Amino acid sequence: SKVYTTHISYLEIYNECGYDLLDPRHEASKLEDLPKVTIMEDPDQNIHLKHLSLQQATNEEEALNLLFLGDTNRMIAETPMNQASTRSHCIFTVHISSKEPGSATIRHSKLHLVDLAGSERVGKTGVGGQQLTEAKYINLSLHYLEQESISTCRFAQRVAVIKNEAVLNEEIDPGLMIMRLKKEIQELKNELAMVTGEQRLEELSKEELLELN
Protein backbone atom coordinates (compact mmCIF):
# COMPACT_ATOMS: atom_id res chain seq x y z
CA SER A 1 0.00 0.00 0.00
CA LYS A 2 1.09 3.59 -0.59
CA VAL A 3 2.71 5.70 2.11
CA TYR A 4 1.11 9.13 2.52
CA THR A 5 2.48 12.23 4.24
CA THR A 6 0.49 15.41 4.85
CA HIS A 7 1.73 18.94 5.52
CA ILE A 8 -0.20 22.14 6.18
CA SER A 9 0.52 25.76 5.26
CA TYR A 10 -1.63 28.77 6.17
CA LEU A 11 -1.08 32.04 4.30
CA GLU A 12 -2.61 35.39 5.23
CA ILE A 13 -2.79 38.29 2.77
CA TYR A 14 -3.16 41.52 4.75
CA ASN A 15 -2.92 44.93 3.09
CA GLU A 16 -1.37 43.26 0.01
CA CYS A 17 1.39 41.59 2.09
CA GLY A 18 1.68 37.87 2.81
CA TYR A 19 2.28 36.42 6.30
CA ASP A 20 2.64 32.90 7.70
CA LEU A 21 -0.23 32.30 10.13
CA LEU A 22 1.61 29.27 11.57
CA ASP A 23 4.75 31.25 12.44
CA PRO A 24 5.34 30.62 16.19
CA ARG A 25 6.56 34.22 16.59
CA HIS A 26 3.03 35.58 16.05
CA GLU A 27 2.16 35.61 19.74
CA ALA A 28 5.20 37.62 20.85
CA SER A 29 5.72 39.88 17.82
CA LYS A 30 3.93 42.64 15.99
CA LEU A 31 2.71 41.76 12.53
CA GLU A 32 5.01 44.29 10.85
CA ASP A 33 8.01 42.66 12.58
CA LEU A 34 7.32 39.23 11.08
CA PRO A 35 8.97 38.20 7.78
CA LYS A 36 6.75 38.75 4.77
CA VAL A 37 5.98 35.81 2.50
CA THR A 38 7.49 36.45 -0.93
CA ILE A 39 7.07 34.70 -4.27
CA MET A 40 10.22 33.09 -5.71
CA GLU A 41 10.78 31.33 -9.04
CA ASP A 42 13.42 28.63 -9.57
CA PRO A 43 15.34 27.99 -12.84
CA ASP A 44 12.62 25.50 -13.91
CA GLN A 45 9.97 28.25 -13.53
CA ASN A 46 8.40 26.56 -10.49
CA ILE A 47 6.86 28.97 -7.98
CA HIS A 48 7.91 28.84 -4.31
CA LEU A 49 6.72 30.89 -1.32
CA LYS A 50 9.61 32.04 0.85
CA HIS A 51 8.95 32.35 4.61
CA LEU A 52 5.82 30.16 4.41
CA SER A 53 6.30 27.12 6.65
CA LEU A 54 5.02 23.57 6.13
CA GLN A 55 3.77 21.82 9.26
CA GLN A 56 3.33 18.05 9.24
CA ALA A 57 -0.06 16.65 10.25
CA THR A 58 -0.31 12.92 10.88
CA ASN A 59 -4.08 12.89 11.40
CA GLU A 60 -7.25 14.97 11.09
CA GLU A 61 -7.00 16.33 14.63
CA GLU A 62 -3.51 17.75 14.07
CA ALA A 63 -4.63 19.39 10.81
CA LEU A 64 -7.63 21.01 12.53
CA ASN A 65 -5.41 22.22 15.38
CA LEU A 66 -3.21 23.98 12.82
CA LEU A 67 -6.32 25.54 11.28
CA PHE A 68 -7.47 26.82 14.69
CA LEU A 69 -3.96 28.07 15.51
CA GLY A 70 -3.82 30.05 12.27
CA ASP A 71 -7.28 31.50 12.89
CA THR A 72 -6.17 32.86 16.27
CA ASN A 73 -3.29 34.68 14.54
CA ARG A 74 -5.48 36.19 11.82
CA MET A 75 -6.14 39.94 11.70
CA ILE A 76 -9.59 40.62 13.18
CA ALA A 77 -11.11 43.93 14.25
CA GLU A 78 -14.44 45.21 15.53
CA THR A 79 -16.36 47.47 13.16
CA PRO A 80 -19.76 49.17 13.49
CA MET A 81 -21.22 46.37 11.34
CA ASN A 82 -19.33 43.35 12.73
CA GLN A 83 -17.83 42.61 16.15
CA ALA A 84 -15.26 40.22 14.65
CA SER A 85 -14.55 41.40 11.12
CA THR A 86 -11.75 39.58 9.30
CA ARG A 87 -9.34 42.10 7.78
CA SER A 88 -7.45 39.77 5.45
CA HIS A 89 -7.71 36.98 2.89
CA CYS A 90 -6.39 33.53 3.84
CA ILE A 91 -5.34 30.37 2.01
CA PHE A 92 -5.24 27.10 3.98
CA THR A 93 -3.35 24.51 1.90
CA VAL A 94 -3.14 20.75 2.43
CA HIS A 95 0.00 19.29 0.81
CA ILE A 96 -0.20 15.51 0.24
CA SER A 97 2.68 13.30 -0.91
CA SER A 98 2.39 9.60 -1.74
CA LYS A 99 4.93 6.91 -2.56
CA GLU A 100 4.86 3.19 -3.18
CA PRO A 101 7.14 1.24 -0.78
CA GLY A 102 10.54 0.83 -2.42
CA SER A 103 9.69 3.25 -5.23
CA ALA A 104 11.82 6.31 -5.95
CA THR A 105 8.83 8.25 -7.37
CA ILE A 106 6.96 10.70 -5.13
CA ARG A 107 3.57 12.06 -6.23
CA HIS A 108 2.45 15.47 -4.93
CA SER A 109 -1.04 16.95 -4.62
CA LYS A 110 -2.46 20.14 -3.10
CA LEU A 111 -5.85 21.25 -1.84
CA HIS A 112 -6.36 25.01 -1.40
CA LEU A 113 -9.13 26.33 0.87
CA VAL A 114 -9.59 30.08 0.41
CA ASP A 115 -11.40 32.46 2.78
CA LEU A 116 -11.88 35.96 1.39
CA ALA A 117 -12.65 38.99 3.51
CA GLY A 118 -16.01 40.53 2.63
CA SER A 119 -16.25 43.80 0.73
CA GLU A 120 -17.16 46.88 2.77
CA ARG A 121 -19.15 50.01 2.03
CA VAL A 122 -16.98 52.56 3.75
CA GLY A 123 -19.72 55.17 3.85
CA LYS A 124 -22.09 52.75 5.56
CA THR A 125 -19.67 51.28 8.08
CA GLY A 126 -18.18 54.64 9.02
CA VAL A 127 -14.71 53.21 9.66
CA GLY A 128 -11.62 55.40 9.73
CA GLY A 129 -7.88 55.28 10.34
CA GLN A 130 -6.29 51.83 10.06
CA GLN A 131 -9.63 50.11 9.43
CA LEU A 132 -10.27 52.46 6.51
CA THR A 133 -6.90 51.51 5.02
CA GLU A 134 -7.72 47.82 5.48
CA ALA A 135 -11.12 48.27 3.83
CA LYS A 136 -9.53 49.97 0.81
CA TYR A 137 -7.07 47.09 0.32
CA ILE A 138 -9.85 44.50 0.76
CA ASN A 139 -12.17 46.18 -1.74
CA LEU A 140 -9.36 46.76 -4.24
CA SER A 141 -8.21 43.13 -4.16
CA LEU A 142 -11.79 41.85 -4.51
CA HIS A 143 -12.31 44.20 -7.45
CA TYR A 144 -9.25 42.80 -9.24
CA LEU A 145 -10.31 39.25 -8.37
CA GLU A 146 -13.75 39.87 -9.89
CA GLN A 147 -12.21 41.20 -13.11
CA GLU A 148 -9.80 38.28 -13.23
CA SER A 149 -12.62 35.77 -12.67
CA ILE A 150 -14.63 37.21 -15.56
CA SER A 151 -11.59 37.15 -17.84
CA THR A 152 -10.85 33.56 -16.82
CA CYS A 153 -14.41 32.44 -17.62
CA ARG A 154 -14.26 34.10 -21.03
CA PHE A 155 -10.90 32.50 -21.72
CA ALA A 156 -12.26 29.10 -20.61
CA GLN A 157 -15.09 29.40 -23.12
CA ARG A 158 -12.62 30.03 -25.94
CA VAL A 159 -10.36 27.10 -25.09
CA ALA A 160 -13.11 24.63 -24.13
CA VAL A 161 -12.63 22.75 -27.41
CA ILE A 162 -8.90 22.26 -26.83
CA LYS A 163 -7.92 18.80 -25.62
CA ASN A 164 -5.54 18.82 -22.68
CA GLU A 165 -3.49 15.98 -21.23
CA ALA A 166 -3.11 15.97 -17.45
CA VAL A 167 0.42 15.50 -16.14
CA LEU A 168 1.13 13.92 -12.76
CA ASN A 169 3.14 16.05 -10.34
CA GLU A 170 5.89 13.55 -9.55
CA GLU A 171 9.54 13.65 -8.57
CA ILE A 172 12.32 11.17 -7.82
CA ASP A 173 13.25 10.61 -4.17
CA PRO A 174 16.94 11.65 -4.21
CA GLY A 175 17.85 9.68 -1.08
CA LEU A 176 16.47 6.42 -2.43
CA MET A 177 18.01 7.03 -5.84
CA ILE A 178 21.44 7.52 -4.23
CA MET A 179 21.08 4.22 -2.36
CA ARG A 180 20.08 2.43 -5.57
CA LEU A 181 23.14 3.81 -7.34
CA LYS A 182 25.32 2.74 -4.41
CA LYS A 183 23.84 -0.75 -4.68
CA GLU A 184 24.63 -0.89 -8.41
CA ILE A 185 28.18 0.28 -7.71
CA GLN A 186 28.50 -2.39 -5.03
CA GLU A 187 27.33 -5.10 -7.44
CA LEU A 188 29.84 -3.92 -10.03
CA LYS A 189 32.57 -4.03 -7.40
CA ASN A 190 31.54 -7.61 -6.57
CA GLU A 191 31.89 -8.60 -10.21
CA LEU A 192 35.23 -6.83 -10.44
CA ALA A 193 36.44 -8.57 -7.28
CA MET A 194 35.55 -11.96 -8.74
CA VAL A 195 37.67 -11.18 -11.79
CA THR A 196 40.64 -9.57 -10.07
CA GLY A 197 40.50 -11.38 -6.74
CA GLU A 198 40.54 -8.08 -4.84
CA GLN A 199 38.33 -7.63 -1.76
CA ARG A 200 35.70 -4.85 -1.52
CA LEU A 201 36.16 -2.28 1.23
CA GLU A 202 32.72 -0.58 1.24
CA GLU A 203 29.30 -2.15 1.70
CA LEU A 204 25.74 -0.91 2.11
CA SER A 205 24.37 -1.07 5.65
CA LYS A 206 21.60 -3.53 6.56
CA GLU A 207 19.17 -0.61 6.96
CA GLU A 208 19.92 0.65 3.43
CA LEU A 209 19.48 -2.83 1.94
CA LEU A 210 16.13 -3.28 3.75
CA GLU A 211 14.84 0.05 2.44
CA LEU A 212 15.73 -0.91 -1.13
CA ASN A 213 13.86 -4.23 -0.90
The number of domains is 2
Instruction: Give the C-level CATH assignment of the largest domain.
Output: Alpha Beta
CATH homologous superfamily heading of the largest domain: Kinesin motor domain
**CATH-scheme architecture of the largest domain:** 3-Layer(aba) Sandwich
Unreliable stretches (pLDDT < 50, length at least 5) are none
Which strand-content bin applies to the residues? 25-35%
Main sheet attributes: strand count, strand direction, barrel closure: 6 strands, antiparallel
The coarse overall form would be: elongated
Determine the fraction of residues in helical runs and give it as a percent range: 25-40%
Average pLDDT confidence is 79
This entry's quaternary arrangement is single chain
Q: Would you tell me the structural class of the helices and strands?
A: alpha+beta
What is Rg?
Answer: 25 Å
User: End-to-end span in angstroms?
Assistant: 15 Å
- The total strand number stands at 10
Topology-level CATH name of the largest domain: Kinesin
**SSE order, one letter for each helix or strand:** EEEEEHEEEEHHEHH
Total helices: the number is: 5
Characterise this structure.
Helices cover 36% and strands 28% of the residues. With 213 residues, it is an alpha+beta fold. It has 2 domains: 3-172, Kinesin (3-Layer(aba) Sandwich), CATH 3.40.850; 174-211. The strands form 3 sheets. Strands 1, 2, 5, 8, 9 and 10 form a 6-stranded antiparallel beta sheet that branches. A two-stranded antiparallel sheet has the order 3-4. The protein has a two-stranded antiparallel ribbon with strand order 6-7. The longest helix has 29 residues, at 130-158. It is elongated. GO terms for molecular function: ATP binding; microtubule binding; microtubule motor activity. Belongs to the TRAFAC class myosin-kinesin ATPase superfamily. Kinesin family. InterPro entries: Kinesin-like_fam, Kinesin_motor_CS, Kinesin_motor_dom, Kinesin_motor_dom_sf, P-loop_NTPase. One of its GO terms (biological process) is microtubule-based movement.
